[in-house]
Design goal:
The protein is mainly β and 310 residues long. Helices cover 15% and strands 41% of the residues. The protein has three domains: 90 residues, Tumour Suppressor Smad4, CATH 2.60.200.20; 94 residues, Tumour Suppressor Smad4 (Sandwich), CATH 2.60.200; 104 residues, Arc Repressor Mutant, subunit A (Orthogonal Bundle).
């Protein structure tokens, strides 16, 4: 139940990517291209509704001699990642159905790559890996897997460790007394599912990002204005729209810094100041989320909006 695309390079090499994979120079890119003209996170393959698309992240590409930031992939399409780096769409595989999650208080949500389920204050399915979420769901390349916090129904080497279980249509699991079910959704309907935001502790955020300046607005509160390094951190994370290492982000912000130890200190101090400003203005500090392995991303909840202009 995964959407796949196979690209052919100029030398005939075939590279297969699935929805959610990104192309870039970064070490954690699904297709790593060691080329100074390629950005750390250049472009991402994404299943949007019933179409498989290539989305520009930090980089840009061209199709039919025209710059593009988004394109629906078609077999035979030629895409120029740089002026002389050409790839071609060799094949596309789209599933007839995709997996969605629904349950007590949760409308149907199509699963995508990694999702986190929070039950309180109301069930909400969030993109990405959210620390201390009640359940995490992800695709491991073969199938979907669910991990429920505190699930110890079956023996394990560590009795307190949550279990990872395969998740297929028809399966159900319980979290905090609520039942959630995995269901199949026809691909042609996936783009038309209504995603219902069932509320959260805070109202949705609107982020207006202009690289050196940023405003974070929430209904009923005064907007938070940021400038300089704080605004640049938010802009870089919004531009990539994927988890990225602290080093890659820092080198964009401080391009002349060569000492990694000093660079890490700059990053830690700047991030701490930014998070403190968020807390002081009653904005959730997990807006910038760390995965514990040195990667950071912008965590957006349902209803959050980013108006980004580099």
């Amino acid at each position: 139940m995964q959407a796949l695309v196979t690209f052919r390079t100029q030398d005939g090499t075939l590279v297969q990517l699935r929805s959610g994979d990104f192309i870039g120079r970064s070490w954690n890119a699904a297709w790593r291209l060691s080329d100074p003209r390629i950005s750390e996170a250049h472009a991402m393959v994404s299943l949007r509704g019933s179409a498989l698309k290539l989305l520009a992240l930090r980089g840009r590409f061209a199709v039919e001699d025209r710059p593009a930031s988004e394109v629906e992939l078609r077999v035979g399409m030629a895409i120029w990642l740089t002026n002389d780096l050409r790839i071609e769409v060799a094949s596309i595989t789209l599933p007839n159905e995709v997996l969605a999650l629904e349950g007590d208080g949760l409308a149907s949500h199509v699963l995508s790559n990694v999702c986190s389920l929070r039950v309180e204050p109301r069930p909400t399915l969030l993109p990405g890996l959210v620390p201390e979420a009640d359940a995490t769901l992800w695709h491991d390349g073969l199938g979907w897997v669910v991990r429920v916090l505190g699930d110890t129904d079956f023996p394990a080497s560590d009795p307190s460790a949550p279990l990872d279980r395969p998740l297929v249509p028809g399966d159900s699991f319980q979290v905090a007394g609520r039942t959630f079910r995995a269901v199949s959704v026809a691909l042609e309907l996936a783009g038309h599912l209504i995603t219902v935001s069932l509320g959260s502790v805070q109202s949705p955020l609107t982020l207006i990002l202009r690289y050196d300046n940023a405003h974070i607005q929430r209904e009923g509160d005064q907007p938070l204005a940021l400038s300089g390094i704080a605004a640049r951190i938010l802009s870089e994370l919004a531009d990539v729209a994927q988890p990225l290492s602290w080093e890659a982000i820092s080198k964009e912000i401080w391009p002349d810094a060569n000492d990694l130890i000093a660079l890490r200190r700059k990053w830690d101090a700047s991030l701490a100041r930014l998070r403190q400003k968020l807390r002081d203005n009653r904005i959730r500090a997990d807006l910038i989320r760390a995965d514990g392995a040195g990667n950071f991303e912008l965590l957006l909840y349902p209803g959050d909006v980013v108006d980004h202009e580099m």
